[in-house]
Amino acid sequence: MLPSGKPPNNSFWGSKCNKVLGVMLIELVVNNEAPAEIRIAAAVALKNFVKRLWSDHVEQELPETEQKTIRTAALQAMLASQGNIRSQLSHTVYLMAKKDFPERWPDLVSSLAVLLTQDDFDKIVATLSTLDQLFEKYRHESKSTELWTELKICLIATQEPLTTLFIKMAAFIPQREQMNVKDVGSWLEILLFISHIYHSITSAAGEPTALDKIKSEICTTVTLYAQRYEEEIRPYMEPFTQAIWNLLVQTGVETRYDGMVCAALDFLSAISERPQYESMFQSEEVLKTIAIDVAVKNLRLREEDIEMFEDEPLEYMKKDIEGTDTGTRRRGGIDLVRSLCKRFEPQIAAILSQEIASKSGNNNWYEKDVIYCLVTAMASKGETHKSGATNTSTLIDIPQYYRSNVHSDLVTDINSNAILKADAIKFLVTFRNQIAPEDIVASINVLLALLGSTKTQVHKYAAWALERLLIMRINGQPIFSSANVQVAPLLTALVSCFDSDPKAEMSPYLIKALMRVVGVMDASTASAGGQIAARLVTMVETAIKNQANPVHTHFLFETMCILIKKASSHVAGGLDSSLLPLVETILAQNLEDLIPYALQITGVLLLTCITRDAPKDAYFGFLGFLLRPELWARSSNVPAALYLIEIYLKAAPERVMNEHGTTIFAQYTRLIASKNLDKYGFQLAFAVLPSMEFANGVTEPYAVLFNNMLKRLQGSRTPSFAKNFLIFLAKFAIILNAPTLARALESIQSGLFSMIMQRVAGPGFEEFKNLTTTEEKRTIAIGYGTIFRDCSQMLGESRIPLAQSVLQLLEAPAVTANFGLTIEDEQVSMYNAEGEFVNPFSKLASAGKEDVLAPNISDHKGFFTECMRV
């Protein structure tokens, strides 16, 4: 304790201690009287000290003045040192420069450039070493204003002294025989460093030149001609093909050539699978050249790929597993192998098998990464995101390859070779339907172990695999359940992954895995549902604070839905007390993007109260807020608000309609009048049908429903509105009965029922027969069958033509719809063809599905036919 009795200011004292420690280490490094091993140890300690305090995640930064003191002292010490000590100090300066240049250390490069004009070889080498490390990032960085600004600073400061130094070093060539060994070593080191630096700050790996672009366009154009104007271009194809594959063989790996290489690979892929060009590829030598010197060459990871894996793992994963790698060399190489296999599979398999064998024995992870690409390219002839490989080669024994090669990569040292771990996990997921079921079941524990890796990239790949594997089925039955999944350890491991990765909420991989694990939760783990719910609430709060990835946020609420359904019956009082405060916070703070989720979570909680026959009074104070016009004015809230209204009507129909019937009908009137929202008007009308008798304060509620619909039919009819109107009539007849439907319409105008059947329903079914889903056809068959059976006499002359229209509709092809999909399939359907998550109304697939009408009727066509005979 300080004399004042107050605790010390830790940040102040920590800062002062750090500054003193840094300066002391530097003083020890430059102390020529200290033993060499002590000075080297101090240099290493200084490097680690800087690595910690100049990192992106340091808890307490040194004040800028103290950072400047250490920067200046370290740079001076580097210039005064030699050998290993100089190397350590050069890297120390680089670590500071990596973070501080140019904003905090704007004069660094210009200061180093001045030192290039002296004659001391040792100091020149130290200076060039630092510049080389600092500039190397420019070889791979994406273009941006910041990049050009930095490059300009570097070029202005170094281009003249570097060129002058190179000329000076070149002048030593005639004298090299007279130089001593030490000076020759330094001389060559200087030339090497200058070459490295030129490479980093010139265009070799930067933007493509005009010539590169011309070559790329020629390749693309020739590919189009080969596909569309085969006869015209055929005489020229052989020289074009020879020129393009020579171009691929001779072109380096620099990023400036990527566009040209990808266009050339596309050309070879396109023509190699066409029979008219088969003769050009039949030679084994040609196939070997293309397979090894073209395809394999472009499968290799480059330094920038490895840097992306380390520094931008989410971007790497998108390219690797989400199909955004189109236009990359690796994708082009894989596509070329697959194209060659279509016509030359035995030959290509033999050539690449030899290549794989030659690479397998050297225990080099870099080469083994290429092997994974080759085996996958040859083995998988067709893939989908939902199912992985759907068509595979008969030449590769995938289950055996997994056991002999892949499994060992998964279980060996979870902290080593992260890219190889990612490759092995990707293989497991890609071929999950070909690998033996017992190996798939065993892989869950392997993935559990990988979640304990120190590499967050491995966490994400393992989580992705868990999410894909846990929904697998054989013959329609789930493979996984609480009987063969260690639910509690998996939940603990996944939560730990969130804790260890500050950017975990920037992608959906971990939360989707957590969702699947909750989905197979056992009763024992479900009893801890309150703690799990509390953790999910914390994660939502973090997502709000950090503006998380919206897909992560969506699946966070999906997880809540599943947890509520799984755990509520195992937790005393359900999960209401854990989750309702979060709902209140979202609504009170008007967090617009999260309000639809909050409404759906409330609905799921209320549904569990109905299921458990638990008290529901606490929910009814919220109903007035739910019906406020401001909430419904935002269209993205409407589906979720409507879903919740439907559940209130199930929970207490009489109370809801007595207390809020007038407001509910007012919302219906607004919705049904809107061309954009009328389908929700029909949904609300259907929801209140069973409770019409309780509609307190609403005069002639049936008339209110139909008059608003008829007004739209007469004044602003749209095809979708007309179809939904006819389906609503069918639902009315099923939920209540056909005579009540007829009376409701006749109460508005005598003869209205038969007129609608004749003039609206009959022509409508003709119009929409090819635009209805299977479920809509079922509803029409049962509803209008009921009308034919119970109101036949009222149909009059329209009976036969109406029946014919319905029968034609029932036999017409159905359009696809999400109704009837499993929860997992519905979640998959939320991604478009480009892999983008598209869910404008924030619908939670796990919240619940629309009840099946007349579930006792299994054959709707047979039902309609029977009703016609009455």
TrEMBL record:
GO terms for biological process: protein export from nucleus; protein import into nucleus. Gene3D superfamilies: Leucine-rich Repeat Variant (1.25.10.10). Keywords: Cytoplasm, Nucleus, Protein transport, Transport. GO terms for molecular function: nuclear export signal receptor activity; small GTPase binding. Its main location: cytoplasm. The keyword Glycoprotein does not apply. One of its GO terms (cellular component) is cytosol. Signal peptide: none annotated. It holds the Pfam family IBN_N. This is Exportin-2.
